[in-house]
Amino acid sequence: MSKKPADSTASADLPLPHADRPIASAPGHWVLARAGKRVLRPGGAALSAAMLSHAGLAGADVVELAPGLGRTAAEIIKDHPASYTAIDRDPDAARRVAAVVGDLGTVRQGEAADTGLDEASADVVVGEAMLTMQGDKGKAAIVAEAARVLRPGGRYAIHELGVTPDDIDEEYYTQLRRDLARSIHVNARPMTAAAWKGLMEDAGLVVDWVDTAPMALLKVGRNIRDEGLGGFLRIARNVAADKALRRRVQEMAATFKRYEKDMVGIALVAHKPAA
Known about the structure:
By secondary structure, the protein is of the alpha/beta class. 42% of the residues lie in helices and 20% in strands. Strands 1, 2, 3, 4, 5, 6, 7 and 8 form an eight-stranded mixed sheet that branches. It is globular, with a radius of gyration of 18 Å. The mean pLDDT is 92.
């Protein structure tokens, strides 16, 4: 692999996914990206960093599914994997990640549930804030594909949106999902920690590590920590200057506030046992 360092700012001038859609109807995470937000993970950058540290990236063949803006890709590259391959269905996202990793990795346009990668070709598979957007069948198909691509002993690391507690009232949980989907314009299906763990186990994986963090995606303190003070001020200026953007962000913030005690960012690392 080339020693040329990746540049996490290299994609700044490339179009964002869904940039042609009105702010009023675009998916919430891409609306936040338009505002200037770069850490789009429910548990924040610290939970992502903890997840990656448990995944064992150094010297590994790493596959990232749906890498989005390439923020995590840049962090993976810093750990000097043997190889990095990203799979993203969105051509704009794929181009942005390719600009971030440069000649230190490969980016392919494709489906997370059908990557086209060889069986047992990866040591680590990473996916963040993408399984939440799938229904039960979609989640299972993607996790099965990750398990297929992993070598025995390989690790699958995910960072997603969770709900708590494990015995959350079903009617209340249904209302939470409906309100969240209505707010972010994506049919998000967050799950309890027990359900996320069960999803991995159903694919034959063994969960080694689980951690959570508050779902504080739009909290001031989290944004200053994740984006830096300059980044936070840039986001604030962008939101203040655009009425449609401000309305969407306020709608999402109200939903997140309503359910803040019920939602968390959750990260898991599981391994594929030997046959």
